[in-house]
Every structure is written in structure tokens, then in C-alpha cells.
UniProtKB/TrEMBL annotation:
<feature type="domain" description="Rhodanese">
    <location>
        <begin position="89"/>
        <end position="172"/>
    </location>
</feature>
<feature type="signal peptide">
    <location>
        <begin position="1"/>
        <end position="18"/>
    </location>
</feature>
<dbReference type="InterPro" id="IPR022376">
    <property type="entry name" value="PQQ_CXXCW"/>
</dbReference>
<dbReference type="InterPro" id="IPR036873">
    <property type="entry name" value="Rhodanese-like_dom_sf"/>
</dbReference>
<dbReference type="InterPro" id="IPR001763">
    <property type="entry name" value="Rhodanese-like_dom"/>
</dbReference>
<protein>
    <submittedName>
        <fullName>PQQ-dependent catabolism-associated CXXCW motif protein</fullName>
    </submittedName>
</protein>
<keyword id="KW-0732">Signal</keyword>
<dbReference type="Pfam" id="PF00581">
    <property type="entry name" value="Rhodanese"/>
</dbReference>
Length: 182
């Protein structure tokens, strides 16, 4: 009887405990594609419906932080390399590689300048960060924006996966000019 009760209790609480991802104190490192927390202290977490409402309102700057795939180091000489096109939320700015756990000073400057561009230099201007579903890049970048003094930060953890699932429009975008290493 007790064994059966424990089995039922484990069935009821086991998955919930396994799904609960705690916010780290600092930034999250590898693996970046993994379950994310339901919260980000200081930010407002939004789902696809709320993100779409914000997008339609036109008052929130949307910031895509999907990393740019690196050029393979072992390509034979003379091989042409073409970046994979990025389909993103229309009107978003793409600031690739700004969501890693550790970023170089040049990358932090690139992030700061990109945020200043889309917010008119106003740290009170609302800004929403996204990437893909279960991707820590947007969580890290949103946390950085909070630490940089941005006061109205939204985090959209479903990213373009959740956006596309709801049949909201996507468009091809290019990374903001000045990206370090390009």
C-alpha cells in the first residue's frame, strides 16, 4: 500500500520537479538549447499571444539574438560559404552572438549600440528579447539588458518557433551592421 502511494506521488510530482528549471545566478552556458526557466527576475515573460500583441502595438523594440552559425573550419579551399538565412519577426533587429554566457568586450559594445539604436538611447523604452524555443541565448541577452539599465524588458522564451507555430508572419532579416568577427 505504501509502495503504491509512493509510486503515485512520484508520478504526480516527478515530472513537475524535472520541468522546473531554476534561474542561474549568472548567465547560462552550454548547452544553450535546453529547457529554460519560466521566469527572469526583473523581466516580464510573454507567450506568443502576448508577444504578438506587443508587436502589433508597435511600441516595443524586438531583438533577435539567435547566434550566427560559424563557418566550418574544415571546408576545403575554394568552397563557397553562405550563411543560413534568418527568418525572424518582422521589424526585429538581429544582434547575433550576444546571448552567450561570456561575450567579448566588442560583442558587448555591439549589443549596447544595437539596443541604443532600437530604443533611441532611452533605457526606459520597452524591449523584447527572443531566439528559438528552449534557447538560453535570449534569457542571457535579456538579463544583460536589465544589468545595462533597461527598465522595461520582455522575454519571449518560445522565440520564432512559438511565433511561427501561431502562424504569425516571419521575414528574412540581416544582422545589424558592425557585428564583431564579420
Amino acid at each position: 500500500m505504501i509502495r503504491a502511494a509512493l509510486a503515485v506521488l512520484m508520478l504526480l510530482t516527478g515530472p513537475v520537479a524535472a520541468q522546473g528549471v531554476a534561474e542561474p545566478e549568472g548567465y547560462r552556458g552550454e548547452p544553450y538549447r535546453a529547457p529554460v526557466p519560466k521566469t527572469l527576475a526583473g523581466a516580464v515573460v510573454v507567450d506568443a499571444g502576448a508577444a504578438h500583441d506587443l508587436w502589433q502595438g508597435g511600441e516595443v523594440a524586438f531583438v533577435d539574438v539567435l547566434p550566427r552559425p560559424p563557418k566550418p573550419a574544415n571546408l576545403p579551399a575554394g568552397t563557397l560559404w553562405r550563411d543560413k538565412p534568418r527568418l525572424s519577426i518582422p521589424g526585429a533587429i538581429w544582434l547575433p552572438n550576444t546571448g552567450y554566457e561570456r561575450i567579448a568586450p566588442e560583442t558587448e559594445t555591439y549589443l549596447r549600440e544595437g539596443l541604443a539604436e532600437v530604443t533611441g538611447g532611452d533605457p526606459n523604452h520597452p524591449v523584447l528579447f527572443f531566439c528559438l524555443a528552449d534557447c538560453w541565448m535570449s534569457w542571457n541577452a535579456a538579463k544583460r539588458a536589465l544589468e545595462m539599465g533597461y527598465s522595461e524588458v520582455y522575454w519571449f522564451p518560445e522565440g520564432t518557433d512559438g511565433w511561427d507555430f501561431e502562424d504569425h508572419p516571419l521575414e528574412k532579416i540581416e544582422a545589424r551592421a558592425g557585428e564583431p568577427g564579420t
